[in-house]
Design brief:
The structure is a homodimer of 742-residue chains. The first copy, chain A, has a domain of 253 residues: Glycoside hydrolase, family 65, N-terminal domain (Beta-galactosidase, Chain A, domain 5, Distorted Sandwich). In chain A, 30% of the residues lie in helices and 24% in strands. Chain A contains 18 helices and 28 strands. In chain A, the strands form six sheets. A nine-stranded antiparallel sheet of chain A has the order 1-8-9-10-11-18-15-14-13, with helices on one face. Chain A has a five-stranded antiparallel sheet with strand order 7-6-12-17-16, with no helix packed on it. In chain A, strands 19-23-24-25-28 form a five-stranded antiparallel sheet. In chain A, a hairpin with a 2-residue loop joins strand 26 and strand 27. The two termini of chain A are 30 Å apart. At the A-B interface, strand 20 and helix 13 of A face strand 20 and helix 13 of B.
Chain lengths: 742, 742
């Protein structure tokens, strides 16, 4: 299948720019111009409404639960789900000039421009409004989300009448009547507390989370305040003097309290320019440490910066209750749920940029251990089974074929524990929380598997390749199961006597358990052909062949165009399975094996997961298939900007943004961190003049710059020992340059 | 797993007798004492209420539809289901004597006896009521369903005061407020028509089916009529004279009109004794032609007669809109749906007893052909795919893993067409309706399969053994697929030129299609070990072994006690799959093959389907494993009477009743009809003195009687050519006796 770009935004290495407004791209633009600061997120909708929109504000960690009546009430089926709730609209503006209400789907306008500044997080929309009664009026909306004061969402409206004085009425509202579109309901209730005139308090129906919105306005004209059902409004009426730029600002403070917590006092008004200055400082520090530069390809430069911008906006470890939803805080799709993508694709970015955020991601899973234990028990299993999709740690995925058959969320947590501990050296975490998680996951893994005459394996599972369900001895599942079992056994055995005793007390660990894990790991079943190709699962090689190039582009995504069961009958892959294991653990496979498996499986993969191209790019790069690697990276790095999967309208692919960073560093940077020493082997894709990135490693900041002439490394902080093209180097503050290879 | 009997009813070869009332057996008794006449069915509930009950009247072919929101909206998922609706209660009686209301859960009583007369269909319940104020009163309730006048449900209440005169108030009601317990709703609406005082008209909400109930009462005292919401009542008040039996009777006429049909005039009252006499004649004729006799084992005699009684009650081809629900008209479980059991287990009984009823079962499927075509198209397939569960021909099964993966409903229809045509010689049916069904099913089968390097097969299916899902090259599916393809090709090729042209016009049959069916059939994949054991599906032999004898009896049924996915991970079978194919087509397998497969698969089967023991019994009998055959038959023939599966409370297992007849004739009678000639090879199970059954074959009635001394055959009507123990005989009216073999 050929993915194709739907190029719409202008190329610019520091901005996303939309010139002119095309209603057919309205929803994609709305997603692309989303802002977030982990505490909250807003889609890039028009303040005044009008036209197609999935208008939505979302709050990290604020959700509702819902009973789920499964088709049949079998044991182990999920009977309660939960979803991120659509919060109050905090940006609503009603504007009338000369008695005409602004609505771009009805009014005359030109020079429409929308700009997202990646360096500051400022979103600006401006146009010239040809009013019916008051001549031409320049309109500019600006907004930003406080990076340093996450509760604040700031908005500025600037007007300038070009032809004559004009009468303006303007209303800023907080509207709590937003409907969660998947359920068609607004479940918010007003708390009934006595409140200040400019405050609104709403509570979720099922989870009892309270949100207070405080509406703070500064601007011309006389203030009128109104309170309606789940709504507060502040209005102004004034005369706009011809030729004079006039601005009105509002800040909405959004405070959240979980059951049992008290809300802090409402914050005071903060000026837009002051918040912008704070944000500019915040983003400057971020870019200084985390920027990835590509000279010679403005589109890829724009793409990777956009990915980093959205990733940092979505998650930076502010609150260990938060995780990284598949769509971040940019849409209702996937209900805000986090998947195993967090550990598999997102974690490396945080490991190399913000150890505290990485640790918070792990602590999120540690806090969810009791729920994972309950889930395992519900499936008649031991230990802890992590959910396929979750906000609060319980399983939210109501498709039993995923929630009951997929082991990868659990083995991904084990992988994350191990990688985090090795890269950060956080031994204290490994020995306490890490060891506890590892043991519980190993127990689950052991109890989910079975012995037969050939050894140990897993039956009736679904691996990462979700086009094959209820399979036996899936390569990825067996391989990661083996890794998890060994890692748990190793970790327990490395514990000091007192630590081991404490763990044994805490989780009733029997002395013989690690040996049982090791036995199963050693006898794990792998199906390998003489040529080194691993069979994805038992019987895979006998499956009928689908030539995926024969499938018309109009039939993608297949889930929408094909009967469900039809997808499961051939050797076609949704996303890599064998290759995924090789990507996560390259140290376990020879280059020849990787090459043979890549050659076999890549042509069978339709990349129906947005993350699939990245994994292929990284392996292709390592195999010297550089043209292919660059082509696959092209999808990954502009997946949303160019709407490759044609579903950016629903929200951004956050884990794919992380995967783009991973591809940059691992494919083009040749970064490997599977052993004790960091390895680098950078190269320049065709057309690139220079390529640079930074890695934070145990407090030091390593800067890597690659150009035709050579590779330059420098390290702020403690020197780092690494290998470059196999040569061991100690890199300190003084830049080291070596010739570029390959 | 050892199945165990819960013996409760007294042994009697012509009756089912309950002496004394045990509330813990209330629901089982209520199922066992169900009556039906195809038009309607009533559970054996207490007329006056009280105690645990699944009070329910059901009407054949009267149902509601309901939208079904699947977990996810994938293509091919069923989004509308339907279910048999609980009709108005037509037996409700309120009785008070001396001011005390009858309620056996509160009143004092003794000598409780309930009797179902299998020879007449009369159900009687009697007891001595020790009233609080009026001394002892003998109470007898009788009921019957008109076999000759199916609209009539008759009821008689006889009272006798033993100690003194007593004041009686008595009300007969038709109560349309019955709740469908699965949905918790009563969807009936009154039609609002002008009605006679004693009539009630209710209409289904979604299907617009109208039901008129006419309440006809005869008895002492003055009549009072009342009409309430969805209810009509007629009351009597009288003095019961000491020592004098006093009876009141009511008939409820239940008439049904589908949308566009008009209701016939209400029938007149009919006396209970007149109806009983009609029924007695009806049943006498039935037993004369269909009785199966077992001398030497009263329990098995009772069991097989009970099975035949319920089978004939449930279905005799009155209306081609009707089919045989898994629970008949005896409970809400399975929503009244018919399954492939109809063609596989029930059809043989009708083929050998009532050809018209058998033809109606086939016409039911022919009428459903358009719905089967739509279902195939919804799954991106050609031809016609018959539903897993249905009342109206559309797919009602909302579990995609069944409705999308199971091909056996369709291949069973093909099997039924072929068997019906061969046994009845109804060539006209075969050449028109039969050929059309066969071709459409063959198209579906071909489009559902795939070619690979090994040949043709089916991928991602679920065979009869529902403990293995999403498997490839399931033996049963491949085998029956092959049979269907060949049968369709053969049938088309046997058609005369004009018939073939008419068929080709009707279904756009291309000349090359039969050859394509034949090619796929010839290259069908079968996985056979050197020792003749067929692998149930690819990879089955590699599955971990479960020793089913190690599973505690308390864990059955497994679906209720095990996590759903846990059931699917081992070599344990729910019901036979390879053996099922061998049972349906013994002519295709050698005795050695059948023996090898029986020996391999039988110990792996938990018989979680109530039909499983019958198939095993028949094969065991043929293999000379006679003790085992008799033991398995023991479950089948008293499955409900002894509540072997502990779920008779929900309703009777109608197809299992049919399977008991099949086991009788095929296992003990050695009946085979897979070739051109009927074959018999009867034997006597241990303890049996005599065993007899009849078969109607092309209008003649063959009577078979087996005793130690020999086998006696006689035939009313045209003589029949058959083989007995391999010897070809022509059997006419003069009995032929041959020595019993074996």
């Amino acid at each position: 299948m050929a993915k194709s770009a739907d190029r719409y935004f202008l190329p610019d290495t520091q901005k996303i720019v939309e010139k002119g407004f095309d209603p057919e791209h309205a929803l994609v633009s709305e997603s692309i111009f989303s802002l977030a600061n982990e505490h909250m997120g807003v889609r890039g909708y028009f303040e005044e409404g009008g036209g197609p929109s999935l208008r939505g504000c979302y709050l990290g960690g604020v959700y509702e639960t819902a009973p789920h009546r499964p088709e049949s009430e079998y044991r182990g089926f999920v009977d309660r789900t939960h979803y991120m709730v659509t919060a109050a609209d905090c940006l609503r503006v009603t504007l009338a000039v000369g008695g005409e209400k602004l609505d771009l789907s009805a009014c005359a306008f030109r020079d429409f421009t929308r700009v997202l500044e990646l360096r500051t997080g400022l979103l600006t929309r401006s146009f010239l409004w040809q009013t019916r009664n008051a001549g031409r009026v320049e309109v500019r909306f600006e907004r930003l989300l406080g990076m340093e004061r996450p509760e604040l969402l700031a908005q500025r409206l600037t007007l300038c009448a070009l032809d004559r004085d004009a009468e303006v009425t303007l209303a800023f509202a907080v509207d709590g009547n937003m409907v969660h579109s998947a359920t068609g309901q607004c479940l918010w209730n007003e708390t009934g507390e006595r409140l200040a005139e400019n405050a609104l308090e709403l509570r979720t129906a099922t989870t009892g989370i309270t949100v207070r919105y405080t509406l703070l306005v500064a601007g011309p004209g006389e203030k009128t305040r109104e309170r309606g059902f789940r709504t507060i409004t502040e209005s102004r009426r004034f005369t706009l003097a011809k030729g004079k730029e006039t601005a009105a600002e509002r800040v909405t403070a959004v405070q959240v309290a979980y059951p049992g917590e008290a809300l802090a006092p409402s914050p005071a008004f903060a000026a837009f320019d002051a918040l912008l200055a704070e944000n500019t400082r915040h983003w400057r520090a971020f870019w200084d440490a985390c920027d990835v530069t590509v000279e010679g390809d403005a589109e890829q430069q724009q793409g990777i910066r956009y990915c980093l911008f959205q990733l940092h906006s979505t998650y930076r470890g502010l609150d260990a209750r938060n995780n990284i939803g598949a769509k971040g805080l940019t849409g209702e799709a996937y209900s805000g749920h986090a998947f195993w993508d967090t550990e598999t694709y997102c974690l490396p970015f945080y490991l190399f940029s913000d150890t505290k955020a990485a640790r918070n991601l792990l602590m999120y899973r540690y806090r969810a251990l009791p729920m994972a234990r309950e889930r395992a028990a519900a499936m008649d299993l031991a230990g802890a089974c992590y959910p396929v999709a979750t906000l609060d740690g319980t399983e939210a995925c109501t498709l039993w074929q995923h929630s009951s058959l997929q082991m990868q969320p659990s083995t991904a947590v084990a992988y994350a524990v191990e990688t985090y501990a090795r890269l950060t050296g956080d031994e204290a975490f490994l020995r306490r929380e890490g060891a506890e998680m590892l043991c519980e996951i190993a127990r689950y893994v052991l109890s989910r598997g079975e012995w037969n005459q050939h050894g140990f394996g897993f039956y009736g599972v679904m691996g990462p390749d979700e086009f094959h369900m209820m399979v036996s001895n899936d390569f990825y599942t067996n391989f990661m199961g083996k890794k998890t079992l060994l890692q748990a056994a190793d970790t327990v055995e490395r514990l000091a006597g007192s630590e081991r005793a404490a763990l044994a007390r805490k989780i009733a660990l029997k002395p013989e358990e690690p040996a049982a894990w090791r036995r199963a790991a050693e006898k794990m079943i792998f199906l390998r052909r003489a040529d080194g190709v691993y069979e994805q699962h038992e019987g895979y090689f006998n499956l009928p062949h689908t030539n995926i190039r024969d499938i018309p582009a109009t039939e993608f995504p297949l889930y929408e165009h094909w009967s469900y069961d039809r997808i499961y009958r051939s050797d076609m892959l949704k996303q890599p399975d064998v290759l995924m294991a090789m990507y996560l653990h390259p140290e376990d496979f020879s280059a020849e094996e990787i090459a043979a498996n890549y050659a076999y499986y890549e042509p069978r993969c339709v990349h129906e997961s947005s993350l699939s191209p990245s994994v292929h790019a990284i392996l292709a790069g390592a195999l010297g298939r550089r043209g292919e690697a660059a082509r696959l990276f092209g999808f990954a790095v502009r997946l949303d900007l160019d709407n490759y999967n044609r579903n950016t309208c629903e929200g951004l692919h956050l884990s794919s943004a992380a995967a783009a960073w991973v591809t940059m560093t691992e494919c083009f940077g040749g970064l490997r961190f599977d052993g004790d020493t960091l390895r680098l082997a950078p190269w320049l894709a065709e057309g690139w003049k220079r390529f640079g990135f930074s890695l934070r490693v145990r407090g030091s900041l390593l800067r890597v710059s690659v150009q035709t002439g050579g590779v330059t490394l420098a390290c702020g902080g403690k020197p780092i020992v690494l290998t470059l093209y196999g040569e061991t180097l100690t890199v300190g503050e003084t830049p080291v340059t070596r010739p570029k290879e390959g």
